[in-house]
Amino acid sequence: MHHTLRGGLIGCGDFANNHLNGWRDVDGAEIVAVCDLDGERAQTAGERFGIEKVYTDAEAMLETQSLDFVDVVTQVPSHRPLVELVAGYGVSVICQKPFAPTLDDARAMVVACKRAGVQLMVHENFRWQRPVRALKEAAEKIGDLFFGRIVFRNNHDIFTNQPYLATDERFIIYDLGIHLLDMGRFLMGDVNRLFCHTQSVNPRVTGEDTATILLDMESGGSCVVEACYFSHLEQDVFPQTLIHLEGTKGSATLGVDYDLVLVVDGEASHQSVAPEPPVWASEPGVAIQEGVLTIQQHWTDCLREGGEPETTGVDNLRTLELVFGAYEAAASGMVFKTDRALGT
Ligand code: NAD
Ligand code: 89V
To answer: pTM to 2 decimals?
Structure first.
């Protein structure tokens, strides 16, 4: 496939603006149609991004457009019906996170895409932030990793743009912890067991807004994941993820303002690995917006060159299992054991 790929986008809400801006910068693909149940939203997105074909029904878009892929940017309840619909038309599909409300729904989407012979990628973009890629590269130099700490703590108001986050039963692990757990897997490999403690601190929020998760990695290492949206700190660094890794030869630390500190054999060096955001990005979310563009370029390259995306639907089963496992562990007070055969 070496022509410019033709994409359709479903769900023209808040976050879709980042996807649509990103698609304009991607080499090798363009969005030729947008769809939203809310006709005004679809129309606004079409006008803003110069996309002529505007739909309020996903099936009508698939019937009338010849598409190479569809980008699903709706909230989680519609993911399974939409992914199955797109796969049924023999079209490859990207799905936003959280991929599914249950592992059974996620498995069903994987099966539908496999049967249809189409690619399926979950839009898990935090691991595509430049600082995180730079940390991964640095980690190659510090020997065998035996410890990690992944921290996302701030008091940023995310509820104005995403009001559902304040009212959903499940909040911080499902919406944000999912990125941190995916980065834990990206940096340190798969997980054997986990333990989790959750807290609901902010009275405005229905679900848990604080989670502390201990991962026992398959490699034998351990990793602590901390997430909190009610941390009153001197410097609020939203949306920076602070990550510290220790290996048998040194350590690599992604600190505040993207200062990457590498210690190898006792020698320390500093490097700035700040995002290189696209022109349309705006503070404070530039790191996330950069990751959106990078993952969409990755998807396009994979589709055009016949490669497999990093965060396929099958891969994401393992991230999702950690999310649901964390809730299970928090509720039961017991350790959650992962299923090594998952996705095979
Ligand atoms: P939103 O509610 O603002 O937008 C979703 C849109 O989808 C709405 O306009 C709705 O009308 C439309 N929609 C729903 N079902 C549809 C259907 N069947 N056909 C057509 N349109 C349909 O939601 P949002 O805040 O933009 O979030 C969307 C997704 O993006 C969520 O899963 C969220 O978790 C995710 N998200 C990811 C990131 C990230 O990757 N870093 C950041 C923010 C949000
Ligand atoms: O990136 C996200 O998934 C967002 C936020 C940073 C607010 O958690 O939902």
So the answer is: 0.98
